Amino acid sequence: MRPGWTTSEVADLRQLGARIDAFDGMANVSGGPGARLRWARARATAFRAEFASTGTPDSIDTCDLVTLPYPTRFGLFRASRAMSPFLSITNRMLVIRWSESDGRRRVLLFEPSDVELGRKTPYFAALSARVPRPLQGLMVTSHGTVMAHLARLGVTPEEVDYLMFDHLHTQDLRRWVGTSVPQEDLGGAVKPLFPNAKVIVQRDELDAMADLHPLQQPWYQPKAFEALRPEVFLPVEGGRVLGPGVGIVATPGHVSGNQTLLLNTSTGIWASSENVIATECLTPEHSRLPGVAAWAREWGQEVILNAISLESTVEQYNSVILEKALVDRSQSDERFLQFFPSSELTEAWTNPGTSPTFSHLAIHHRR
Question: Which helix (H) or strand (E) holds 271?
Answer without folding.
Answer: strand 268-272
